[in-house]
C-alpha cells in the first residue's frame, strides 16, 4: 500500500511531465482503435446491405461470379433464358419468382456528357426495377420507370450531380447509347456505401444491356412460409438442373463479403502496421521520460532506500507510475479512436463512399485491445528505467551521485550494436544480389529489422561522434551559445541517441519508400521509352471495355496512320508436357501491336506470333513446360472451341510492360470464339501520320468526347499518370507515417522539457553570470535542432540503404533503374531542422521565464 501511495503521489506530482508521454500513448491507441472501429463499421454497413438486397434464393448463369457480379469481357452480362423463370416458379416451396437484368459495364452521363459514376470506385449499376429492389428502395419523388424513355435514379446520385425530374441521361453500353429522362428518385432504406443506381423497366433494361428481350441475369426467388432457404435451394436446383448457379441469400452475402474482406484486410493491416510504428516510436519517448524522471528523483530514491524500501519496491513504484500512465493514455485513446473512426467515415463520405453513423460498430474487443496494447507497451518501455532505479544504492543516491556509470555496459552495448548493424548490412547485401525475388525479400526484411535495431542500440555511440561534427558545422557560428548547445546534446549520449532514434524510424521509412517509388517511376518511364512505339493509348477506364462505337470513332480520325485493338481472352492450356496450368489469359491484338509494343524476345519474332494459328509464350513459362519454337499448345477458349496454336515467339521476362503475357492475333481468336462471345477491347493504340501528332491528339479527344470513361493519353500523359498514381499512394503512406513523426516530435519536446527541469539550477547560474533570456532560448533551440538533424541523418541514410536494396529486388521484375529522389530527401532534411525548432518552442519559452534566484536556490 505504501508503494502504491508513493507511486500515486509521484504520478500526480509530475503529471505535467507525464502529459506528452500520455499523448503518445493516446495517439497510438486511438489509431489502432479507430482502424478497428472503422473497418468493423464498414463490415456492418455492407453486411446489412448484402442481406437486405439478396432474395431468399438467386438463380444466375454459371458464368457469373460467386458474388453475382455480371460484368464480362464481352461487355454484356451473362444471362439466363426466360424459360428458367417458368421452371423456377413450378418448384415446390416457391412463393414468387421474378426475372431481372442488370450490369455494371455501363457508362452513364448527363446531358452535358459529365459522368454520373461514383468517384469512390463504387460500381455504377443499371438494371430493371423489380420487387426485390422495392424492398430496399423507397420512391421519394416521381415514379418507377414505365417505358423506354424513363429511368429512376437513386437519391444520392441525384443530390451529388444536381439532377431533377425530367433531366435527360444517357447509358452507354456495348449495345449502343440509350437515352431516357429521370422519371423518379428512390432512396435507400439501408445505407448505400456509394453505388450509383439507375433503374429502367425490365424490357428496356434487356434491350439496353443485352440487346435482346427474353433473357435475365438473375431470377430472384422468395420462399413460401415455413420453407427454409436451404430447402428452397434444393427444390429450385432440382427444377432447373445443375446448369445454373443457385445460391441462398446467405451464400450471396458471404460471397460479396469475402470479396470486400480482402480489400478491408489490406487497409486494416496496413493502418495497424503504421500504428505499430507509432507505438515503437512512443517507446523511446516513454523510456526517455522515465529515465529522466528517475535521474531527477535520485536523492528521493536514496531516502526511500535508506528508510527501508527494497530494490523491488522502488522498481514497483516506477512501474506503477507507468501503469497509471498507460491506463490514462489508453482510456483516452479508446475514446479518441471512436472519434477518428467517425472522422474517417466523414472523409470517405466526401470521397463518395457514404457510411452512416447509425452503423457505427464498437466491438467489445476494440477497447480491450486498445487498453492491453497501451498498458503493456507503456509498462515494458518503463521496465529498464525502473530496473535502473532499483539499482541505485542509498549512499550514492544521498550523495546525489545518480545512477552509477556503467562503462562496461556501454562497451557491451556498442559491440552488440555494431554486430547487429553489420549483420543487417550483410543481409541487405545478400538481398541486393539475390537471383530470386522470393528469397531476396526474406533477406531484405531481415536486413531492415537488424539494421534498425542495430542503429537504435548503437545510437549513443553515433550521437557522440555525429553531434560533434554537426556542432562544428552548424553550431560554432553561434559562438558560446552554440558550444553550450553542443555540450548539452553530448551530456547524455544515450538520451540523445534515443530521442534521435525515434525520429529516425519515421524518416527512414519515408526515405525508403521515396527511393522505391521514384525508382519504379523511372524504370517504368525507361521501359515506355524503349518499348512503346505508338503515339496514343486509349484506356477503357472503369468499365474495362471499349465499345465498338468508340473504336469506330477512333478509326474514323483521318490523322491516324494505324489503329491497333487489344483485348484479353480467357483460356485454359494443355502444354506439350501434358500439364494443364491454371487458367490463363491470351493477349489478343492486331498484328500491328508488334510495332506498338517492342517487346524483347529470346527466340523468334513477336510479329510471327500474329500469324494464323500462332502465339507467343513468356520465357519463364517456356522453361517450366519445355516449350520451344514450333511447339504446339492446345488452347481451350473459354467461350469457344479448342484449337492447337504453334509457338512462334518466346518473349523475355526482363520487361515491365505485359511481363509474362501470351500473344496471339484477334483473327486467330475469332476462328475459335463466336462473334457474340468475343471479348471487347481493353485498350486501343493509335499511331499518328508523320508530322500530325498534335492534330491527331486533338482529333482523338474530340472523337471520344461522347465517351468520358475513356482516356486518350500520349506517352507524356501516360508517364505523368503513372507518376501521379504512385505519388498519390506515397502521399497516403506519408500521411500515415506522420503519426509516428508526430509522436517523435513529442519525444523531442518532452526530452527538452525534462532536460530544462533537470538543469534548473545550472540555467539559473548561467543567467546570473550574464546569459540573456534570448541567448538561453537560442541555446535550447539549437540543441533541439542538432538532435533532430542527427535523427534525420540516421533515418535518411538508413532509408536510402533500404530503398536501394529493395530496388535491386525490383530489378528482377524488370524495374532496373535506381533513382534517389534528392529533392525529396533534401526537403525532408530541411524539414527535420524546422521540426527541431518547433519542438523547442515551449521548452525554450519556459526556460526563459524562470526566476533566476528561484532557479539558483533549486535543490
Description:
The chain has 859 residues and is of the alpha+beta class. It has five domains: 1-54 and 294-404, no CATH class; 63-242, no CATH class; 411-457; 466-532 and 716-859, no CATH class; 547-709, no CATH class. Helix content is 58%, strand content 16%. The strands form four sheets. Strands 15, 16, 17, 18, 19, 20, 21, 22, 23 and 24 form a ten-stranded mixed sheet that branches. A hairpin with a 4-residue loop joins strand 20 and strand 21. Helix 15 (459-475) packs across helix 25 (773-811). The radius of gyration is 34 Å and the shape is globular. The protein starts with a helix and ends with a helix. Residues 400-405 have low confidence and may be disordered.
Which secondary structure elements does this structure contain, and how are they paired or packed?
Blueprint lengths: L1 H12 L1 H39 L3 E5 L18 E2 L1 H7 L4 E7 L1 E2 L3 E4 L13 E5 L2 H4 L2 E6 L7 E5 H7 L6 E5 L4 E12 L7 E5 L1 H8 L5 E2 L1 E6 L5 H12 L3 E5 H48 L1 H9 L4 H40 L14 H26 L3 H5 L8 H26 L4 H21 L1 H17 L3 H13 L1 H39 L4 E4 L8 H8 L4 E15 L9 E6 L3 H4 L4 E4 L9 E5 H7 L6 E6 L4 E10 L10 E4 H7 L10 E6 L4 H11 L7 E4 H44 L1 H9 L4 H39 L10 H18 L1 H8 L3 H6 L2
Parallel strand pairs: 6-11, 8-10, 17-22, 19-21
Antiparallel strand pairs: 1-13, 1-14, 2-12, 3-13, 4-6, 5-9, 7-10, 8-11, 9-10, 15-23, 15-24, 16-17, 16-20, 16-23, 18-21, 20-21
Helix pairs in contact: 1-10, 2-8, 2-10, 2-11, 2-23, 8-11, 8-17, 8-23, 10-11, 13-14, 13-25, 14-25, 15-16, 15-17, 15-25, 16-25, 17-23, 17-25, 23-27, 25-26, 25-27
Amino acid at each position: 500500500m505504501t508503494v502504491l501511495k508513493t507511486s500515486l503521489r509521484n504520478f500526480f506530482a509530475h503529471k505535467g511531465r507525464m502529459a506528452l508521454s500520455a499523448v503518445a500513448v493516446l495517439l497510438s491507441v486511438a489509431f489502432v482503435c479507430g482502424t478497428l472501429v472503422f473497418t468493423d463499421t464498414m463490415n456492418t454497413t455492407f453486411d446489412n446491405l448484402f442481406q437486405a438486397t439478396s432474395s431468399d434464393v438467386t438463380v444466375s448463369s454459371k458464368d457469373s461470379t460467386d458474388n453475382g457480379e455480371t460484368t464480362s469481357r464481352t461487355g454484356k452480362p451473362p444471362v439466363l433464358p426466360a424459360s428458367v423463370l417458368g421452371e423456377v416458379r413450378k418448384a415446390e416451396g416457391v412463393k414468387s419468382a421474378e426475372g431481372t437484368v442488370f450490369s455494371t459495364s455501363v457508362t452513364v452521363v448527363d446531358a452535358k456528357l459529365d459522368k454520373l459514376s461514383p468517384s469512390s470506385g463504387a460500381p455504377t449499376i443499371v438494371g430493371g426495377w423489380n420487387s426485390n429492389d422495392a424492398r430496399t428502395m423507397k420512391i421519394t419523388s416521381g415514379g418507377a420507370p414505365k417505358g423506354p424513355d424513363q429511368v429512376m435514379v437513386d437519391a444520392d446520385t441525384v443530390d451529388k450531380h444536381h439532377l431533377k425530374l425530367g433531366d435527360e441521361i444517357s447509358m452507354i453500353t456495348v449495345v449502343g447509347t440509350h437515352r431516357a429522362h429521370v422519371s423518379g428518385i428512390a432512396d435507400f432504406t439501408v445505407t448505400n456505401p456509394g453505388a450509383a443506381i439507375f433503374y429502367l423497366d425490365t424490357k428496356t433494361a434487356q434491350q439496353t444491356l443485352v440487346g435482346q428481350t427474353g433473357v435475365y441475369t438473375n431470377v430472384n426467388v422468395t420462399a413460401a412460409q415455413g420453407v427454409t432457404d436451404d430447402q428452397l435451394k434444393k427444390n429450385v436446383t432440382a427444377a432447373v438442373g445443375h446448369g445454373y448457379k443457385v445460391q441462398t441469400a446467405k451464400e450471396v452475402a458471404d460471397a460479396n463479403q469475402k470479396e470486400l474482406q480482402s480489400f478491408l484486410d489490406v487497409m486494416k493491416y496496413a493502418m495497424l502496421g503504421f500504428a505499430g510504428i507509432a507505438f515503437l516510436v512512443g517507446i523511446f519517448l516513454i523510456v526517455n521520460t522515465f529515465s529522466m524522471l528517475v535521474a531527477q528523483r535520485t536523492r528521493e530514491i536514496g531516502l526511500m532506500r535508506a528508510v527501508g524500501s527494497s530494490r523491488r519496491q522502488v522498481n514497483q513504484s516506477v512501474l506503477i507510475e507507468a501503469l497509471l500512465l498507460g491506463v490514462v493514455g489508453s482510456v483516452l485513446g479508446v475514446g479518441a479512436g471512436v472519434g477518428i473512426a467517425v472522422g474517417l467515415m466523414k472523409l470517405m463520405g466526401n470521397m463518395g463512399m457514404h457510411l452512416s453513423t447509425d452503423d457505427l460498430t464498437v466491438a467489445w474487443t476494440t477497447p480491450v485491445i486498445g487498453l492491453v496494447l497501451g498498458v503493456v507497451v507503456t509498462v515494458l518501455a518503463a521496465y529498464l528505467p525502473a530496473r535502473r532505479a532499483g539499482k541505485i544504492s542509498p549512499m550514492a543516491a544521498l550523495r546525489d551521485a545518480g545512477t552509477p556509470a556503467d562503462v562496461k555496459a556501454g562497451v557491451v552495448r556498442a559491440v552488440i550494436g555494431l554486430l547487429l548493424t553489420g549483420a543487417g548490412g550483410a543481409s541487405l547485401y545478400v538481398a541486393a544480389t539475390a537471383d530470386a525475388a522470393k528469397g531476396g525479400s526474406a533477406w531484405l526484411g531481415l536486413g531492415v529489422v537488424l539494421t534498425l535495431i542495430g542503429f537504435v542500440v548503437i545510437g549513443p555511440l553515433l550521437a557522440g561522434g555525429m553531434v560533434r561534427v554537426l556542432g562544428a558545422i552548424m553550431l560554432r557560428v553561434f559562438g558560446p551559445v552554440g558550444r553550450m548547445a553542443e555540450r548539452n546534446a553530448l551530456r547524455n549520449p544515450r538520451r540523445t541517441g534515443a530521442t534521435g532514434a525515434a525520429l529516425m524510424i519515421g524518416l527512414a521509412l519515408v526515405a525508403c519508400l521515396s527511393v522505391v517509388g521514384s525508382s519504379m517511376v523511372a524504370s517504368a518511364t525507361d521501359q515506355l521509352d524503349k518499348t512503346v512505339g505508338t503515339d496514343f493509348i486509349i484506356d477503357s477506364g472503369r468499365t474495362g471495355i471499349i465499345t465498338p462505337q468508340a473504336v469506330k470513332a477512333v478509326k474514323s480520325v483521318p490523322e491516324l496512320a494505324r489503329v491497333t485493338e487489344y483485348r484479353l481472352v480467357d483460356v485454359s492450356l494443355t502444354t506439350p508436357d501434358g500439364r494443364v496450368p491454371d487458367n490463363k489469359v491470351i493477349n489478343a491484338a492486331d498484328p500491328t501491336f508488334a510495332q506498338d509494343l517492342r517487346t524483347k524476345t529470346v527466340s523468334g519474332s513477336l510479329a510471327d506470333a500474329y500469324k494464323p494459328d500462332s502465339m507467343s509464350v513468356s520465357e519463364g513459362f517456356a522453361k517450366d513446360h519445355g516449350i520451344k519454337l514450333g511447339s504446339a499448345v492446345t488452347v481451350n477458349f473459354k467461350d469457344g472451341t479448342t484449337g492447337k496454336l504453334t509457338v512462334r515467339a518466346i518473349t523475355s521476362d526482363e520487361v515491365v510492360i505485359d511481363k509474362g503475357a501470351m500473344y496471339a492475333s484477334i483473327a486467330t481468336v475469332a476462328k475459335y470464339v463466336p462473334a457474340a462471345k468475343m471479348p471487347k477491347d481493353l485498350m486501343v493504340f493509335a499511331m499518328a501520320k508523320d508530322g500530325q501528332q498534335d492534330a491527331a491528339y486533338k482529333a482523338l479527344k474530340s472523337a471520344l468526347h461522347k465517351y468520358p470513361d475513356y482516356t486518350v493519353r500520349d506517352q507524356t500523359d501516360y508517364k505523368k499518370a503513372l507518376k501521379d498514381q504512385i505519388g498519390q499512394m506515397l502521399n497516403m503512406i506519408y500521411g500515415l507515417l506522420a503519426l509516428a513523426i508526430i509522436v517523435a516530435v513529442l519525444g523531442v519536446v518532452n526530452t527538452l522539457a525534462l532536460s530544462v527541469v533537470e538543469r534548473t539550477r545550472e540555467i539559473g547560474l548561467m543567467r546570473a553570470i550574464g546569459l540573456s533570456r534570448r541567448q538561453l532560448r537560442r541555446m535550447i533551440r539549437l540543441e533541439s535542432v542538432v538532435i533532430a538533424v542527427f535523427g534525420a541523418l540516421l533515418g535518411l541514410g538508413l532509408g536510402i540503404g533500404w530503398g536501394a536494396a529493395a530496388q535491386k529486388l525490383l530489378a528482377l521484375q524488370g524495374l532496373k533503374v535506381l533513382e534517389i529522389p534528392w529533392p525529396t530527401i533534401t526537403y525532408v532534411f530541411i524539414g527535420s531542422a524546422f521540426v527541431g525548432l518547433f519542438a523547442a518552442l515551449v521548452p525554450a519559452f519556459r526556460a526563459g521565464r524562470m526566476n533566476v534566484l528561484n532557479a539558483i536556490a533549486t535543490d
